[in-house]
Amino acid sequence: xxxxxxxxxxxxxxxxAGFLIFAGLMAATPAHAEDADPSTYAxxxxxxxxxDETAIEGVKVTATLGDFSASSVSNEWGEWSIMVPExxxxxxxxxxxxxxxxxxxxxxxxxxxxxxxxxETDFAAVLFSFGADTSTKITFADQLLIRVYAGLNxxxxxxxxxxxxxxxxxxxxLNNFAHGEMVTFGALVMWLAFAVLELNIVIxxxxxxxxxxxFGWAQDAGLWKPLRKRRMGLNQMMIVSIxxxxxxxxxxxxxxxxxTKDIGGSGxxxxxxxxxxxxxxxxxxxxxxxxxxxxxxxxxxxxxxxATRAVSDNASLAASTGIDVERxxxxxxLFAAALTGLAGVLYGLQxxxxxxxGFDILLLLFAAVTLGGLGxxxxxxxxxxxxxxxxxxxxxxxxxxxxxxxxxxxxIVILIVRPQGVLGKKQRIG
Length: 430
What we know:
The chain has 12 helices and 11 strands.
């Protein structure tokens, strides 16, 4: 009987032992076993170690985020890559003890640590500088000169677009919040004509300006003129413009996608003392100045310009003298749209373009118009130059993310002292 029981007992003992071994293996397995194989990770951090075009082999680099850490060693071409399991901002650090003799970081104190921002993308490149430290400290005077130059350039771009807002407001009283989308449309059509269709840059610019001019004409003919005939209030029309801007913005996102379009490249670098600029920027500034001079001549020396000023001052009185107010408004829309198209072209060439280009600077455009004085083209120019200068120069003293806020603070301060703006008239307040 005992012999008969020994067989099943041994089998049961074997099964229990096997179960315990299996349970032990399962307990030793990490909770996220699927993450143990880096090849299953979806995100990549990579770079190349070079010194004077010479690849640096054998340098260890480590990426960390929370409890996660992974390392890689540069190959014979100096290339390295690390696969990581999740989005986030990773700390990337070089093990300086692995840098071969004859190679050195440009900044031994801080140059061994970098950051890979994988917050919104699945790939991040991290650059480390090797070789002699050739950087030079820029004096405060040179920094100020660089910022003033950048402020002048940015202010001129704002001025060309802000004049359109000012002219439309002066003749119709409308605060057109879709004006930013006209800037965006000009930049994106420029990208389509120049970068995609590969037209000559001048022809592409003309096509873009004509497209925005047609867009402005269609807006007035199809939307604003019918609303004016119905005597809709300005507040209601402003709300309509906000809705129209949202529709136009997302239509451009639909047709042009959300990526940033590189239109003109970086251009040829030109050094002017401590200022490094490009031929695209200099030519753009010259075009802006010529355009502003043309606006001044149009408003002061031509019959249509004088009629525009008359309508802007008092539309009812202008109509009583025989001026066709609706015709002047239509011309102003075409003129303002053409200037805005030019602003979009130049802005896109210098700063690239996407579906939010105009929306990002819309508040600055209204700030320029308000600061300079509502309804005056010269006031819009002055206000834009002040805004552009404050935005760029303030970045020397405050974080770059707050530079637009600095311009709006200046706007508030000036309006407290002079509510009508720098060149505005008291009659236009309210």
